[in-house]
Structure to design on (117 residues):
């Protein structure tokens, strides 16, 4: 989910491969929908973490209602779901709204190369 000055870039079925799988940086993908209250609650936290990790982790969002191919490809059945990709590979998943400190651990792991628990 994005806003006017959000550092979270929306991606689509058409742009997912270039934006995520071919990215030079680790990428956190936020799968969300406009009708999802927990997604709306997590969005400002993700934007804050995107600013904090700028240059180390890229953050993108996928509207699950508008992008069924990516949703099906990655088996998204619950939102919000975050997938972390490094070098085109899925390396971490977070399902559900989580506190900022928990999400920050996943961002730190993505930036540093180790898996979050």
């Amino acid at each position: 989910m994005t806003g006017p000055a959000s550092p979270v870039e929306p991606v689509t079925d058409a742009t997912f491969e270039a934006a995520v799988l071919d990215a030079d940086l680790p990428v956190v993908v936020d799968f969300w929908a406009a009708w999802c209250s927990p997604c709306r609650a997590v969005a400002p936290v993700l934007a804050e973490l995107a600013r904090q990790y700028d240059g180390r982790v890229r953050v993108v969002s996928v509207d699950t209602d508008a992008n069924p191919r990516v949703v099906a490809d990655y088996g998204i059945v619950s939102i919000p779901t975050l997938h972390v990709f490094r070098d085109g590979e899925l390396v971490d998943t977070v399902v559900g709204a989580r506190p900022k400190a928990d999400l920050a651990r996943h961002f730190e792991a993505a930036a540093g190369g180790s898996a979050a628990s």
User: Anything to note?
Assistant: Strands lie at 9-10, 27-32, 58-63, 81-86, 89-95. The mean pLDDT is 92.
